Amino acid sequence: MARRRIKLHYDYRGLVLDDFQQEAFWNIENGTSLLVSAPTGTGKTLIADFLIDNSLKNKQRVIYTAPIKALVNQKYQDFSRQFGRNNIGIATGDLTIGPDAPVLIVTTEVFRNMLLRSDPRIDALQWVIFDEIHYLDHLQRGAVWEQSILLKPPHVRLLGLSATVPNIASIAQWIEEIHNEPVAVIVHTERAVPLRHLYFNQACEAIPQDKIMQSLAEVTLGQYDAYDFKGGSLTTKDIQLPRQVKYEDTTRFMDLVFYLGRHRLFPALFFSFSRKGCEYKAKQVANRRDYLNAQGKRGVHLIADKRLRRLGLKKEDIPHYDRFLHQWLRGVGVHHAGLLPVIKQIAEDLLADGLIRILFTTETFAVGVNMPVRTVCFDSLKKYDGERFRHLTQQEYFQMAGRAGRRGMDRQGTVLSLVDFGELAKDPLPEWKEESLEPITSRFTLTYSLLLNLLPQHGKDGLNKLFSKTLSAYQAPDQVGELAQMAEESIKVLERLGFWENSAVTEKGLIGQNIYVHELLLAEALSTGYIQKLNPTQLAGLAASISWEGSDTLPPYPGEPWLTEFMTIRDQMANRAGLPRKEIGVILPAAAEIVMEWTQGVKIQELLKDLPLDPGDFVQLCRRSVDILRQLQSVGDQDLNQKLEEAISTIDRGVVQTRF
After folding, report:
1. Residues 37, 40, 41, CA angle at the centre, nearest 5°?
2. For the residues 306-335, what does the mean pLDDT come to?
3. In the chain, what is the straight-line distance between the N-terminal and C-terminal CA atoms, in Å?
4. CA distance 435 to 547
5. What is the mean pLDDT of residues 68-87?
6. Between vectors from CA 100 to CA 94 and to CA 102, what angle results, nearest 5°?
7. What is the pLDDT of residue 643?
8. Which of 49, 51, 302, 470 is deepest in the core (most CB within 10 A)?
9. What confidence tier does 205 reach under pLDDT thresholds 50, 70, 90?
10. Can you say how many angstroms the Cα of residue 318 is from the centroid of all Cα atoms in its chain?
């Protein structure tokens, strides 16, 4: 049979293609899986657009996966505009629209779950797109990505889009080996807009890294006659600050903001690794600067009002709306996970239209939103990772710094990092080099739900063969034994709890196959009939009680008798399994109480008035609760499902509801 002739594309949608994009298009039309590694802002998204366009023309089905719901929601809206809403569906666990559409946008967890339960839609699938495939290296989420790639059927082709990673060819080789298919590797290293990396301190303003120590020495040692800087008696390498020298740095973030204005470096993203820090800085700047003229202010009102109308919300529904509006009207915005989705969406709309000149944000913006700016600022190059304060990794730094520089608008992007001379002598700065980016390493781990799905297909003996195909085994073959040992211990737990008996999944185990959060506890509670006894309000509270993922900031609450019974079930399971209670499930009565009050019509302002809980965290708690209730619907009977639907409808309202 004659081979289909593949043409080389030189432009697409009026854009002249770079060589790496042309190569990617060719492989897509040739039906070859591929991994594309390129810096942020170089046009990887265009490759996904072309694949979807080409697949729709050829009546092929595509699943597009992304790491976070915010990005999934954004892609659903973008693709709906580009390709028509009838062609695009979305599934995030707590939300499903058009599940049988030819292009389905999902979180990677949803795709993995579809593979585990042999969803019939997988049979008709031709392509899966993994956006941000370097999430394989994510400490908490990477395992789901690896499982998804491992379990992908051979007939499904893969497009992986990645920020620059040094071992992308090795990842492709792993995929080739486990699926016995060719995987093209396309690496593009040149940024569309080059970056300049500068460091800011009030004493020297913006300078490159190789001038930092010289400037520090001039400031701190200039009083000593022994040091003649102008005479050139010292080089940067010669500088060693005496231990007794102390420097009290008076540099503030406002100094950097003023510098941005003087040098016309707006629009800018200002990364701060604390929510309160973002809000404080936005408030300070908005109180001291106004970057918008009368026309710009009218634009702010129009865009904000349009977004509210689209979501069916009123200003009174939104806590502190006037405060955010005041900042927007002065060209200042804030964006972090603790804000209501509508506030973040308006900020994104305003930034896209050039009406926010400076946006204070946490690092989540770098993953969830693709909006380049002229300048990226860091108020610190250190972050708290949950265990300690440490410098950013190369990957983290460039994920954020790469937002600087707008293609076709800026000759270069500027990255400015605020440095404290008082700290610099004790703790030198890292050297940021894209060629020094950290390689992807496996984060593979096992869950009980995963084992309950894999055991019937592979048996205990077949698990070792499957483990030998993991990226973990590919990178460190001796870890296969560790995985096997972990699986053996987990299987013993399943046997002690009655989920696996006589080399078969029990009826209770079948329930656990379709639940992916606290699967053992929920399956047990269903099998005993406990959940079926609850009313819709209690069901909402139950889901919320195991949905909280924040720190221990909620006030103590004893819990009602019906929830105490749930905790007793958990404790009894932990005793039978010989496990700590938290491994069976963490139950938080305060979270249940908060969501139950919401289901009974309490307004969000009243609900959160005396709670140390950000509105965005409350929305996430509600959305995760809906996700759990949906999972229970997949295994419940008709009577229970009706109550679950009522519970979902009472949670899924107002600022909590996802609308497009």
Report:
1. 115
2. 96
3. 46
4. 40
5. 93
6. 115
7. 97
8. 51
9. very high
10. 24
Look at the block and give the residue holding tokens 């905790």.
567
> Counting beta carbons within 10 angstroms of the beta carbon of residue 649, is it exposed (0 to 12), middle (13 to 18) or buried (19 or more)?
middle
Specify the amino acid at residue 471. L
**Closest by Cα among 473, 514, 405 to 40:** 405
What pLDDT does residue 239 have? Answer: 55
Closest CA to 160 of 265, 316, 259, 47: 47
What pLDDT is attached to residue 370? Answer: 78
| Count of other CB atoms within 10 angstroms of residue 287 | 12
144-174: buried (b, 16+ CB within 10 Å) or exposed (e) per residue?
Answer: bbbbbbbbbeeebbbbbbbbbbbbbeebbeb
Q: Give the span between the Cα atoms of 346 and 300, in whole angstroms.
A: 9
Q: pLDDT-derived band of residue 552, with 50, 70 and 90 as boundaries?
A: low
Q: Could you tell me if 515 and 523 are in contact, meaning their C-beta atoms sit under 8 angstroms apart?
A: yes
Residues 579, 580, 583, 584, CA torsion sign: positive
Element (H, E) at 358: strand 358-361
DSSP structural state of residue 440: P
What is the per-residue pLDDT across 324-364, written as a single tens digit (0 to 9) for each? 999 999 999 999 999 999 999 999 999 999 999 999 999 98
Q: What pLDDT, in 10s, does the model give residues 138-195?
A: 988 899 999 999 999 999 999 999 988 899 999 999 999 999 999 999 999 998 899 9
647: helix, strand or coil: helix
pLDDT digits (tens, 9 = 90+) for 498-543: 999 999 999 999 999 999 999 999 999 999 999 999 999 999 999 9
DSSP helix/strand/coil, 304: helix
Query: What whole-number distance in Å separates Cα of residue 537 and Cα of residue 548?
Result: 17
CA distance 95 to 588: 24
User: Is 218 exposed, middle or buried (CB count within 10 Å of its CB: 0-12, 13-18, 19+)?
Assistant: middle
Whole-number pLDDT of residue 660? 81
Give the Å distances, CA to CA, from 83 to 56, 64, 111, 299.
9, 14, 22, 28
Given a contact cutoff of 8 angstroms between Cβ atoms, the answer to whether 207 and 198 are in contact is yes
In single-letter form, the type of residue at position 25 comes to F
Query: In this predicted structure, what is the pLDDT of residue 236?
Result: 42
Tokens encoding 42: 């170089």
Residue 228 has pLDDT above 70, yes or no: no
Distance CA 570, CA 497 (A): 11
C-alpha pair distances (Å), 579 with each of 455, 515, 545, 571: 21, 20, 20, 10
Residues with Cβ within 8 Å of 208's Cβ and at least 6 positions away in sequence, in order, are 196, 197, 198, 199
Q: Where are the alpha helices (DSSP H) in 501-560?
A: 507-513, 519-527, 536-545
Length of the chain: 660
Q: What is the pLDDT of residue 432?
A: 87
Lowest mean pLDDT among 15-19, 57-61, 353-357, 488-492: 15-19
Residue 423 has a pLDDT of 83
Phi, psi angle pair for 465, to nearest 5°? -65, -40
User: Given this model, what pLDDT does residue 245 score?
Assistant: 57
Question: What Cα–Cα distance (Å) separates residue 589 from each residue in 244, 368, 445, 541, 629?
Answer: 53, 31, 29, 8, 17
- Whole-angstrom distance, CA of residue 325 vs CA of residue 301: 8
Q: Where in 176-292 does DSSP place strands (E)?
A: 183-187, 195-201, 205-207, 268-271
Amino acid at 346: I
CA 480 to centroid of chain Cα atoms: 29
pLDDT band of residue 4 (cuts 50, 70, 90) is low
Neighbours of 300 (CB within 10 A): 22
Q: Which CB contacts under 8 angstroms, 24+ apart, belong to 242-245?
A: 245/220, 245/221, 245/425
